[in-house]
Design a protein that fits this description.
By secondary structure, this protein is α/β, with parallel strands linked by helices. The chain has 15 helices and 25 strands. Helix 2 links the parallel strand 2 and strand 3.
């Protein structure tokens, strides 16, 4: 083990009370913005009051949402007009996005947004049913910081304003460095100044352990929880990936870089923050501690051991490859007279509804002796095991550290040698010769933020908010007519899923209010993105996207039911098209350009 950093930082809330509650500032009035939940902020205000200081301590994270939860009278509201800041150093919708999901919290209230100035204040007009009107200015504390890729970010920040200071001292209006900002900056400095090897991967595991106080506040709407610890995990993970890309001279969206496994493990503390960054070897795989579930009614993701048992019970020829950490990537192929289909899930292992939905669908499909199915339930078992471990501490967090393989790359973009995880998919295509790949995915079920590098997740801005269930269809250019026929049939099949259209519509409406519009074409009430691409090994690749990071109970059961229905609808649509023999996919030109001819 190599230790890069081991350090503690005083909690900013404790420092505020210590410095301003010493008796030197009796009679002063302060406003402070910290990354703290409401209860500890109120306790600190009471301690300062005992020292003669009038204090109001607010949240530096999502300040407008907190203002409506804590300060603004919402009883009897009829209409709210919000002018949000637009700053030249930030994305134009950055502060609009930060108000999410306010309209859903103000049910029955007409909420309107419009662009404002660059002074980092929300201007709010509240109109009440009794005729009252109240205006509010809500400060959004941010500061420009140089970042790890040679640019600058307008980043969320602690802040303090002080008036009525002793001896006529000038007022304060300046940043107040908080421990969560210090932790983020310290982690990035440790990574950026270490002497890394030139050859990838740079380490087996880059373990970033943090214990810290902060905000963990459920909003009572959907899966939304304001969590600074989750935000810190996301910001550290993706900032580290970005820096390694920058160091290697790669584009930030290049998924082939293999820095190694980057694992921020952020845990709740009560007092000073502690950081420990170390380079570690992979640990030996451990058995899953999860109880066995009936997959038809599963309310959370099953353990890897159950997945292997469920797969072994299916008919067909088994095949496998080995993950980077030594876990098996297992699949089965059962031949039949229908058009072959490859079904995979768990490529991004924190997207948890796919494996269960895939199992439920494949069981039903294999009941037909003519079905021709290749199936890999978890393509990234190392990430899947990491996700299970991280969820033991923070079960509702997104945990994107579990997204990629232990090499740090997306398995679909991994190296030719060593083969590792992608070997199972290659074997499935070799056995089945499938022309359709149904690849089950998910994305965040609640807001995804990076508050210390500009708030919106850089490069993934379109994924920052839940927007319902949608489909991505990638097709070889010669299969364009088939692609349109296929997606029309699949979405018609999904219309039979109770509640799906309403679920997507509700999420899309709220997402659109905070992002400026719906991003996809609507086909039979399902948002769809169709893209011609030559790089994929199958002429048709259908990708599902359900907001499933990380959900449980009824929400999880609904998610894997939708995934199941998609697989079944896709297999039926594809079989019908292939049996009809009238599509452009079967013309001589299409066959000549069939990308499967390369395999």
């Amino acid at each position: 083990m190599t230790i890069l950093l081991d350090r503690r930082y005083e909690r900013a809330l404790d420092r505020l009370v210590r410095e301003w509650g010493s008796g030197e500032y009796r009679g002063s009035i302060i406003e402070a913005w910290l990354f703290e939940d409401e209860e500890p902020r109120r306790r600190a205000e009471a301690l300062l009051a005992e020292a003669g200081v009038t204090a109001r301590i607010r949240s530096a994270y999502k300040p407008l949402v907190h203002a409506f939860l804590e300060d603004i009278d919402a009883a009897g509201l009829e209409r709210v007009a919000i002018r949000y800041p637009v700053h030249e150093s930030a994305d134009p919708i950055r502060f609009l996005s930060e108000t999410y999901p306010l309209p859903a919290l103000l049910e029955g209230v007409d909420v309107a947004f419009e662009t404002g100035g660059a002074d980092l204040h929300y201007r709010v007009r509240c109109e009440y049913r009794d005729g009252r009107v109240a205006d509010h200015a809500v400060f959004a504390p941010n500061r420009l910081r140089a970042n790890h890729i040679g640019q600058s970010d307008l980043a969320c920040a602690g802040w303090i304003k002080a008036t009525n200071l002793p001896d006529g001292a000038p007022d304060w209006d300046e940043p107040f460095e908080t421990e969560i900002e210090q932790v983020f900056q310290a982690v990035m400095h440790a990574l950026m100044t270490h002497d890394w090897p030139q050859q990838e991967p740079y380490a087996e595991k880059i373990a970033i352990d943090v214990t810290i106080a902060g905000i963990e506040r459920s909003l009572g709407y959907g899966d939304e929880v304001m969590s600074t610890r989750e935000a810190l995990h996301e910001d550290i993970y993706f900032s580290a990936l970005e820096w390694f890309h920058h160091r290697a001279g790669r584009a930030l969206d290049d998924r082939t870089l293999m820095p190694g496994r980057i694992v921020p493990d952020i845990r709740a503390g009560n007092g000073e923050a502690w950081i420990h960054v170390a380079l570690r070897a992979f640990a030996s795989p451990r058995d899953s501690a999860k109880p066995v579930q009936d997959l038809e009614r599963a309310d959370s993701s099953p353990g890897l051991s159950q997945i292997e048992q469920e797969l072994a019970a299916l008919p067909g020829e088994g095949f496998q490859s080995i993950s980077c950490e030594g876990r098996f990537v297992r699949g089965i192929y059962r031949s039949g007279s229908r058009a072959a289909v490859l079904v995979t899930s768990g490529q991004h292992a924190n997207e948890t509804s796919g494996p269960v939905g895939a199992f439920r669908a494949v069981r039903r499909l294999l009941a037909n002796p003519d079905a021709n199915i290749a199936f890999i339930p978890v393509e990234n078992p190392d990430g899947y095991a990491l996700h299970e471990r991280l969820c033991e501490i923070n079960p509702r967090h997104l945990h994107h550290a579990a997204r990629y393989t232990s090499l740090g790359s997306d398995l679909e973009y991994g190296p030719e040698e060593p083969v590792h995880e992608i070997g199972a998919r290659r074997k499935a295509l070799e056995l089945s010769n499938a022309r359709l790949h149904v690849n089950l995915h998910g994305y965040p079920a609640h807001e995804w933020t990076r508050p210390f590098t500009g708030y919106l997740p850089r490069g993934f801005e379109q994924w920052a908010l839940p927007q319902g269930f949608f489909l991505i269809l990638r097709y070889h250019p010669s299969w364009s007519e088939t692609a349109r026929t296929f997606i029309e049939a699949v979405t018609r099949g999904l219309s039979a899923v109770p509640g799906l259209a309403d679920f997507t519509r509700r999420q899309l409406e709220l997402c659109s209010a905070h992002s400026g519009g719906a991003p996809h074409e609507m086909i039979n009430d399902v948002p769809c993105l169709l893209a011609a691409q030559e790089r994929h090994p199958t002429p048709l690749t259908l990708i599902t996207e359900f907001p499933d990071e990380t959900i449980y109970g009824d929400a999880y059961r609904f998610a894997h039911t939708v995934q199941m229905a998609t697989v079944i609808a896709a297999e039926e649509a594809f079989a019908t098209i292939m049996e009809a023999g009238a599509s452009d996919a079967l013309t001589e030109s299409a066959i000549a350009n069939d990308p499967m001819r390369r395999f």
